[in-house]
## 1
Amino acid sequence: MTTPLIIDCDPGQDDAVALLLAMANPSELELLGVTVVAGNVPLARTVYNARVIRELAGRLDVPVLAGCPRPILLPPRTAEYIHGEGGIDGADLPEPSAPPELTHAVVWLIETLRLAARPVTLATLGPLTNIATALVMAPDIAGKVERLVLMGGAIGQGNVTASAEFNIYVDPHAAAAVFSAGLDLTMIGLDVTHQARATPARIARIAAAGTKAARAAAGMLDFFSARYAESGRVAGGAPLHDPCVIAYLLRPELFEGRPMEVEVETASALTLGRTACDPHLRRGRPANALVLERIDAEGYFSLIADSMINLR
Ligand code: RIB
Ligand code: CA
């Protein structure tokens, strides 16, 4: 039985590899569409990049929809210092020919979930603005969401501030709405993704798949890792954040985690965007997310390299 899936993303090299991983496994993942949000780079660029990756994967059957161009309350914040001006720098890919859909991503999410024959899995790889907006506009769609697996947050240190991870920090109000919506949530934060470094040897294994998609993924990861090293924060290979979400859908046995009560800080200037994760439920509230803590990194990169062979 395939899993009906919608990916919401802000490509970004790691989003791009996550899209390739999902598009390379159609026998397990029925990708209904890719909704795009402003994040790593502005919306016009994230939408363009999603279209580029869709064509690289040869999956023009998958609609791409442009969503929210900015967070709900805060001004936009981008990350060109890591991702480059284009957002998926490192791969020289042709202009996309197929256009995005005309429908706004939030409207499409609501319509698609309402009409879905069976509940749909949501995989989110960027700020949660589109998802939160859809839940506010149409709370009934929560009943058509099988589960939401998100890359974001951290049990420990953040990567934008000491407290906050980028996807949550950009739109903490959207994140707070999603974490309190009663969905079946799985949170994959920096504690996991920093165990999965795209080392030169692992990037070489991906490139050795030999397909055009594999070479493009390797080029993007080379760029991504170089920028991480230049930023002085992470040497020895960029943490490969977003494909962890798709890998969890495909091979959950590669991961371990615990149910936790997670709350998002939306008021404090010092800790804005913090995901306060408590496995001991000391605030007396129930767990609202499965928070992953460990990954089998070698198994993860083998899955990516093996999947790239399925693409052209
Ligand atoms: O903090 C890492 C996350 O922020 C990843 O999803 C990356 O693509 C950026 O969106
Ligand atoms: Ca992302």
## 2
Amino acid sequence: MTATKSFLKEIDYTKEELEALIDLSLQFKKLKKQRIPHNYLEGLNIALIFEKTSTRTRSAFTVAGQDLGMNVTYLGSNEIQLGKKESVADTAKVLGSMFDGIEYRGFKQEHVEMLAEFSGVPVWNGLTDTWHPTQMIADFMTVKEHFGQLDGLTLAYLGDGRNNVANSLLVTAAILGINVKIIAPKALQPKAEIVALAQQHQTGGDITITDDTAAVKGADILYTDVWVSMGEEVDFKERIDLLMDYQLNQALLDKTANAEAIVLHCLPAFHDTNTEIAQTIYEQYGYAELEITDAVFQKYSPVIFQEAENRLHSIKAIIYQSLKNI
Ligand code: CP
Ligand code: NVA
């Protein structure tokens, strides 16, 4: 791994590099819990660009940067020229001359790649329409904390099988050599090019793409995500109709025939009607729970919120590995 490596997508990293990031995340978690200062990057400056909303990723980058001793500047999409009055390339050159690293959450993967190319500083992908790589380090860190190791495990993802999180899980599990199943209706299965990438970078394990929920049998980790992702303009009802059979509920958990199985969710989740959008969906279509039932969500909430907390520790590891030799 070079000293100033960006994190734009998972395939830029080897199995060993991803494992090293997971282990470094676990070390940073220990330092944080023991209140041992770790301001190793004191005086550096990072910028956080968000074209889409965020709770976890923004908070994690902010606190991780501050814990590492850095100055962190948030650049919301309505507050900077990017994309409106100034190109990605020109913005990248300016930011690269002032900041030591840049986080970007937005729509197009090509934009985060351009930021890296033209800024000359490490760029971290905080989610695009195609990938969500920083989420993966937190997810597999959580899996490692829970099971003690990653080898031999099977992760089954249910729901929209061609969104950023599904793409990232498929490819990351393949790189790590973990068995991965994407269980989704045919219309929402991963694109052939994403499956091909996973196969090219696979170090072990099996890849399964199916529309049959019986495939959860034997899974150790069940994972789901929202049915409509940020920026998607789709008919919500059509999506619900396509995906209701893939809801993470107790009947589906029973199909794993594995009492030790855990449930993960990157969050936010539609598990009750305590949000404006969920309330509207309930009023319009009568569904109080979408991708995960409230009973399953509550039962597995300790590990789901552990996963959310791990965004902090893993993003800290990602920033540190990029900037430690600057
Ligand atoms: N999981 C995740 O990326 O959450 P946010 O959208 O809140 O950052
Ligand atoms: N697939 C979701 C992930 C949110 C963290 C989205 O892109 O909205």
